[in-house]
Amino acid sequence: MITLISILPLYILGWFCAKFCLGDRLLREKSELPAKYWQIDGLRFFLAFSVFLSHTFIIREYVVTGRWALTDDKVATFLGQGGVSLFFIITAFLFWDKAMRQPLKFDAVEFFIGRIRRLAPAYLIVAVPFIILSLIQIPFFSPSIIKEVFQTLGLGYFRSVNIGVAHLSPAYTGVFWTLFYEWKFYFFLPVLYILLRFKNALTLTASLASLVLLTSSILDIGLSKDWPFISLFASGILSATIYNSKYFEELRCSQYLVGAIFIGSILFHIFSFSGESYYGASHPTLFFITFLALLKIEKTSIIGRVFLGAPTILLGSASYSLYVAHGFIISALSILFYSLFGVFSNTVFYIFSIGSTCLVSLLSIALYRYIELPYAFRKPLPQGVPST
């Protein structure tokens, strides 16, 4: 039985790995997000790390049984699907927030080039070895194999990432499918900019986003299998609209109340889980409430101080590297552990979890520093700062 208390030490261990990197001046770099989004930077660390932890529990069963599927544990399922859901909300929130502030400054060509430059470096670091390992296992090539290779190189634009009959752990590319929905939102973004040219555009957009949430969450109506994911992006759009309203800015709440809503909504997610999926039913609305509560957290609160810690910001900045690379790392490590011990007993699994946490944290930070910063963000390698 997995509990929040039992996995808490792994979050702390990852945090200390990042602190070690800061102490050794591996990286001393501010987030690429504006300072006003400090809550989101901290949240990104917890989301990416939660997806990683979820996959460590799933891969334990995969190595033993060969079956890649969700576990029966509510906490493990929430860590994975809840993390992905909030990442979708963050994407829509950030882009719609920027659109509202700069409605006439949108260059589609520049935007998509920027998205490719942002996603490609860390993605290809994982995708290229996956392709090589897959091709090694394939006895002969065919046009379909070549097509699948090019699809895998498509930065997640193509939903399926599978090459022939290669038997590799699904964890290798276990999160690439989410980029398919990210690209859908990117292609829809120009439509949102067009909407901003009309009178009462914000009211119209907020109404449409609310309608999507209503049909998906309250009435449990979906126009397609992708509707739950559309609802999550709608949650992000609605969150940004509310966040920029004067009423939200003027709203004063006790930090104890805000913290209780934020933590309480997370616990409600877990204990109200029906065993089907967090990508549907009432969950988009619940995630919307969770995210809005997060935006009202202040820096001086207990949660705010945790989110503002330098290691938290570092891992938040490196969250994309952590998100796309963790599958490759834990897959390789699981094969090593299974070949050494033959079984995945509780003791072996705990050792595996600790080793995975350290490796994923450190390698993700290194990937962010040496690949993402110079190539995705085009920033010079930081030289560190004096310890004084």
Biggest pleated-sheet summary: none
The count of domains is 1
Order of helices and strands: HHHHHHHHHHHHHHH
Overall pLDDT, averaged?
77
Residue share in helix: over 70%
Structural class: mainly alpha
Principal-axes geometry comes out as globular
What is the number of beta strands? Answer: 0
DSSP strand content: under 5%
Separation, N- and C-terminal Cα atoms: 46 Å
Low-confidence segments: 381-388
Taking Cα atoms only, what radius of gyration do you get, to the nearest Å? 21 Å
DSSP summary: helix tally: 15
Give structural attributes.
388 residues; mainly alpha; 71% helix; globular; disordered C terminus
Structural notes for this entry:
It is a single chain. The protein starts with a helix and ends in a 12-residue tail after the last helix. It is built from 15 helices and no strands. The protein has 388 residues and is mostly helical. The model is unreliable at 381-388 (pLDDT under 50). 71% of the residues lie in helices and 0% in strands. The protein is globular and about 60 Å long. It has one domain (4-160, 186-376).
